[in-house]
Every structure is written in structure tokens, then in C-alpha cells.
Amino acid sequence: MSLLTPQRPASGAHTDSAATMVPNQSRAERTTSYTVADFPLPTGREEEWRFTPVDRLGALFRDEATGACLEWDATLPDGVTLRTASVEEWRASGAPAPGDRAAAVAAAHSGGVAVLDVRAEAELDAPVRVRLTGTRREVVHGHLLVRVGRFARATVVLEHHGVSEYGEVLSVVAGDGAHVTVVTVQEWDDDTHHLAQHDVVVGRDATVRHIAVTIGGGIVRMNTNASYTGPGGTFEGLGVYFADAGQHLEHRLFVDHSAPHCRSNVEYKGALQGDTAHTVWVGDVLIRASAEGTDTYELNRNLVLTEGARADSVPNLEIETGEIEGAGHASATGRFDDEQLFYLMARGIPEDEARRLVVHGFFASVVGRIGVPEVEHRLMAAIERELSGGAA
């Protein structure tokens, strides 16, 4: 597949959505609340739910506790603690409020917040690892707060496996000058539904990388939101997803630039194969009037491997000041490039291997930046399995 690399607009340029114009309602005006009743039941006609099969997700919108939990297995290096706190403490942490009904339900009925603290100035010599496993098809409300102290350096890997109806709220609060990488892996069984809100709060001069790897689950919808508490912060959002027949994988990002001289870069790549495979990527960036000196860019690319698969991609920019370093976005969706396949086969490479090489090359720019070799290797192995089991 031939995909052109877009040029970044000149300083102060305004770029509208490649698929639609900026929505009539500003992202700044959307409801956030701790109260479930402030969010009506989604119908699928709302802008934020129009791609999602909400008729299959009713259990995760129900305003009631279940008492069910996923199985936890955590590996904590020196300098890291894990405990349970009240919802009131979470509210006081600086983490944003829920932005949709599923997140409000998860926050209200989790029964407490798991708090993972990395002490100030710690430099972890190994990743924090948390493995969450669902053993039954039941509704589970999960709530995790990750706090990284000032000038600390940490990598946190969250893995999701098994079967569940899982509503999740994850809050990552990075102190001033911290360097944080959060890798979240969705490797669920095919009949799992997972609705998540991930909030990233970037401190002054801090750097946070949020990496989403989604290769399993029947319906997985992840909302990742980034905000800044002071100037000089950097947010990087990376994502890799592979949808097979019958899967709906949806990733939505909102980067809220309210502080001056901050940066953000978003790059998501996905592949699809099989009948009714569906992926959705929506990237919203808001540059407020106070965010002078912002530098932001977002990119989404999708590779459609077979007939019957569908990828929706909607990048949006909303800019309230012209005093910025740069702002741009790009989106591209294309089918498997038969010319590349022919080129490789003409040099003696069998067709199956040639297909793998093209797909590997497509994902390489993102996978190679995950920074956790174990996750990188497992992801490529999962892509191999998908390619082996998919239609030619």
C-alpha cells in the first residue's frame, strides 16, 4: 500500500477534519461528571456513540454495582506501592471526571480505587506489571489511579486477558518533570466487551507516553484523554490494533491543550481482515486560547486486508489561537498493495511470507517505539497468528 507522508502545516495554520468538519459542539463543552444520571443512556445517535454498537452494551450502562472483580497479578519494583483508596481521594488527586455514562458507572460502582504510587525521583529498573484476567462473563467495574512523583521515571504495563463485561477508569497523574510510559494491552477473548476511559494528566515539563495495543475482544472502545497542568509538557499517544471477523475496535483520543508551550504527537495504526471487522479511530485536539506555543500532530493509518472489513477514521482540530508552533493531522485507509506483493514474490518470496513482510513493515514505526521488548514480541506474534488464520 502506498501512503503519502503528509506535510506539517506552517506555524499558526488551521486544519479542519479530513473526514468531517469540527463538530458543532466544542470538545470543551461536552459533559464531564461524577454523577451517572448526568449521562442519558446512549442511543447511538449521539456524536460520541455513533460508531459504537450500543445495543450490545446495555449491561455496562446499568447504574448498579455487581461486586465482581477481575483477578489481579501485580509485579512492583522498588519504589512502587499499591493500595486501595476511596473514590473521594481519587477525586482530590487531580484526575478528570468521567466523560461518558460507562465511565461514570465504572467510577461509581468500583467499590474503591486501586492506587499505584511511584515515589518522587524514583528511577525504576524494571516495568511495573499488572495483569488483569476475567474468568466469567460478568460485569466488572475497574478503577485504577497511577500517580508518578516529581522527576520519577517509570514504565507501567497493564494487560487484559480472559472474558468479561469490563467498564474501566484509568487515571495517570504525572508529577512535574516525570517521564512515564503506560502500555495497555487488550488481549481479551472474542466474546469480551471492554469500555474504558483513560485520563493522562501531564505535569510541568513532564513527558507521558500512552501506548494502546488492542488485538482481542468482541467490542473494545477506549477513550484516551490528555491534559496539562503546566507549560513544557509532552504527551505521546501511540496505538496498534488488529481487527478480525466480527470484532469492533474503537479508539478515541482527546488532547486538551490549555497550557502554553506543550507538545503532543499521536500515531495509531490498524489492520483489518475478515467479514464485519470494524475499527474506529477518532482523534480530537483542542488548542485553547491560553495554549500559545503549542506543537501538535496526529496521524491514523489503516490497512484493509480483505473484503468486508471497514475502517472509520476521523481526525479533528479545534484551534482558538494562532500563536502556535504547528498543528496538523492526517488519516489514510487503503487496501493491501498488490504491487508490493508482486514485487516481493517476483524475487522468490512465497506469497504468505510476502504478505507478512508488508504488514510487519506497516506496523514497524509504532511497534518499535513501544519500548518493552516483551510486549513488542508478543504483539508481532499475535499479528502472525491473525494473518495465519485470516482469509487470503
What's the gist of this structure?
The protein is α/β, with parallel strands linked by helices.
What does this structure look like?
With 392 residues, this protein is α/β, with parallel strands linked by helices. It has 6 helices and 16 strands. The chain has one domain (27-336). It has a 16-stranded mixed β-sheet that branches.
Number of strands: 16
Overall geometric form: globular
Q: Considering DSSP H and I runs of 4 or more, what fraction of the residues is helical?
A: 10-25%
* Beta strand %: 35-45%
Number of helices: 6
Count of spatially separate domains: 1
The span between the termini is: 16 Å
Rg, Å, rounded: 20 Å
Order of helices and strands: HEEHHEEEEEEEEEEEEEEHHH
Report mean pLDDT, rounded to a whole number: 90
Give me the secondary-structure category: alpha/beta
Which residue ranges are poorly predicted, with pLDDT under 50 across at least 5 consecutive positions?
A: 1-23
**Main sheet summary:** 16 strands, mixed
Pfam family, one: SUFBD_core
InterPro entries: Fe-S_cluster_assembly_SufBD, SUF_FeS_clus_asmbl_SufBD_core, SUF_FeS_clus_asmbl_SufBD_sf, SUF_FeS_clus_asmbl_SufD
Family: Belongs to the iron-sulfur cluster assembly SufBD family.
Protein name: Fe-S cluster assembly protein SufD
